[in-house]
User: What shape does this take?
Amino acid sequence: MSVQAIPASHVESEVRASWVPMIAIALSQIIMSFNVAALPVSLDGMVKSFGVPPTTVATGIVVYGMLVAGLVMLGAKLLQRFGPSRVFATYGR
Assistant: This one.
């Protein structure tokens, strides 16, 4: 059994990645957790403030949740299709 040396030109150097995408994802998750908890609690205040029936405000909250879920699925599909490096590199430009 012989051991062959690998030339230095063939050794890949470590690439330092940016933490910005990970921080953006973490902050997005925190905001979504806040939205899920705060929107139903503030339903009464929104009804009084906007002067509309509770069903209208509740429908708006549901539509908002569906829109966010759709955008999350779209983002996941883009990451799957193009890869995280390309998607987040496009975001950083």
Summary: The longest helix spans residues 54-82.
